[in-house]
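Sample entry (593 residues):
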Amino acid sequence: MSVPFDKVLVANRGEIAIRVFRSLTEMGIASVGVYSEADRDADFVGYADEAYLIGPPPATESYLVAEKILEVAERSGAQAVHPGYGFLAENAGFARSCAEAGIVFIGPPPEAIDAMGNKIEARSLMESSGVPIVPGVTDPVEDVSAARAIADDIGYPVAVKAAAGGGGKGFRVALTADELQGAFEGARRESEKFFADSVVYLERYLREPRHVEVQILADTHGRTVHLGERDCSVQRRHQKLVEESPSPVVDADLRERMGAASIRAAEAVGYTSAGTLEYLVSGDEFFFLEMNTRIQVEHTVTEMVTGVDLVREQIRVAAGEPLSVSQDDIAPRGHAFECRINAEDPARSFMPAPAPITRWRAPEGPGIRLDSGVSEGSDIPDIYDPMIAKLVVHDVDRESARRRMLRALNEFDVAGPRTLIPFHRWLFAQDDFIAGGACHAELAALVAGELEIPGLAADAAPEGEDAPEMTERMFTAEVSGRRFEVALRYPTADDGAAAAPTRKRKPRGGGGAGGGASADPDAVLSPMQGTVLRVDAGAGDSVDAGQVVAVIEAMKMENEVTAHRAGTIAVVGVEPGASVSAGAVLVTLEPGD
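Predicted structure, serialized as tokens:
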């Protein structure tokens, strides 16, 4: 095999950067990494043949600054840039800047990114190409009044969606007419924040459809192929948690129709490189949702069932080479699952839980793949995506793969940050999931705090000023000749030794508003370190129990903070834009009875 490039820069971080570095190494191509000040000691930096500092921790000052990326490319002699996913991966302006600088962008043409990046234009284009779309409008909706007229026409429930959106951002649902204004304004506000574009549109909201996507590859020689589908229906807050291939609800006929539609869609925009067409599936019908013009997080399951290295194909296409596979060559075998191992606490409605990793033992054995950017001793920053690893398994069929995933999850041992490993163990043992369901009701109840994962709530992180900081150690014991592994948790003394529970728990982070935890029963506290996105109540306002009073952004996720009881706001302790630590007082209610 010829070497298409001498050197490639990877404009990303974490596990996806390592993933691309590995393909480059196998292809005999030198790699260049970039990193922020927060990532100086991150594992991915050591995988690159050479690496360069590009700025402070915030992505807006480092990973999202195209000029810095291109400067490093020129300085290092890189001939091409692979953007991974996120950051600049779907930025048509960056793709054009690469071309202007004489650097190859390993991705689709900027015109294709533009065409599919605007959800309104994409819907219209797909409709004209014979790809089914969800009933709705393809024009921007200017105000709530116009939204009401459209919603009355297409029928409730409706989804208000950002035209430039994706990944669940800028997405709100109105089940009834009374909820439309809040959904409309919320979608516009979030769209403006994340995409600097407040344009939204409306479409019919399908209740509990399956979220199924089709992977495509296209080269510059006129060949476009699809590699089957992935099911991404297990989600919370429109963020994916588990992916699998093939989908348990897609039969051969539906697979063929979705694959053909995906190829038509790609060809309609002159697409090249790897891309994903996302659909909502209801029964034997499917409707276009969006196209992701990049490599997907969950590309791993497609690679496991097809044996095709999607990143390698991206690099070949960018160099002008033909795809190494034809449609007849693609014959998926067996079944694959991916679990996203996020630094989140499932016992606290999936709140972000960044912390240093104090213990890391990865699963091994047949059919197991782990894509990760961390190891023991790594610190999980609170300013980036909470995903720390992707655990992927493959076996001969779905049930065998499910059992293999459970085995791998039971082997996976992580200490430090709370992770989704206990959640995944629970999910893969649920009857609905075993039968091929997506556990929509159970996940909704978990997020709402109405359902507890057995054995997890008692081990949730302690809260409040009087809760001691805890240490956990594993011991081996023998009872009547039988070996047991025992986890012992006990308060930590200032010198790190066991101590009586007299030490106050230190809030994570520091320097933010509030400064620490509060024992005031009338205070509404921040459940995490983060940034105040908005405050929804002012002094003198009456609030109900469960009413949202503030929204905290942490690890790229918005988290609603609600009042723990009804009352009147006495004091608002923060303002939008303020940094807060876990336990900081957001608002104080007038003293209760």
